[in-house]
Amino acid sequence: MSLLQQICRLPARTLFFALFAICVGLLGGGLYLQHVVGLQPCPMCIMQRYAFVAVALIALIAALHGPAATGARVYALLTGITALAGAGVAARQSWMQLNPPEIPECGPGLEYLLESFPLGQSLPMIFRGAGDCATIDWTFLGLSLANWSLLCFCAVIAFSAWLALRRSGG
User: Fold this and answer.
1) pLDDT at 52 over 90
2) Residues in CB range of 112: below 8 A, 6 or more apart
3) Does the predicted model carry a pTM greater than 0.85?
4) Is the dihedral of CA 77, 81, 86, 91 positive or negative?
5) In which band, very low, low, confident or very high, does the pLDDT at 69 lie, cut at 50, 70 and 90?
């Protein structure tokens, strides 16, 4: 039996735990870049972190629960929807990096926005981004952090879709 076949036969509990561990690793990498390398996250970066935290928490709950097939599909749907939201933020930031605003402005930080405005007003401001959201401070293999985040969210979406649609495992 090949490695891929063995992975496909793993129970949902194990796969959700793997997703949790991967998300924790991604978040750890972001914290390393912030606290060791010195890259400060913009509001859109922080929103992407929140999405990874939400995916990780859903995956951890699913792993601890050890759901049957229907429950695994529900958890997979929840992780997929959450990753879709994160991908939307990452895609918007990637687009801003490709098409930076003519007049870069540094807007207020995420904490200030959330403390000073109702959520309905602060979310549009966050998605509008600021000058620092369009800045590319770090790249790996020619891709910015927003690009990598988008790829990771797309992988989570694909993984979630596979988990939701697979016939075996529970």
Assistant:
1) yes
2) none
3) no
4) positive
5) confident
- First-to-final CA distance of the chain: 20
Are 129 and 96 contacting, i.e. CB atoms less than 8 angstroms apart? yes
**Rounded distance between C-alpha atoms, residue 99 and residue 155, angstroms:** 25
Place of tokens 């918007």: 92
Burial 65-77 (b: 16+ CB within 10 A, else e): eebeeeebbebbe
Give me the domains of the chain, ranges plus CATH numbers. Answer: 3-165 (1.20.1550.10)
**Which residues 6+ apart lie within 8 Å of 170 measured at CB?**
11, 12, 67, 68, 69, 71, 72
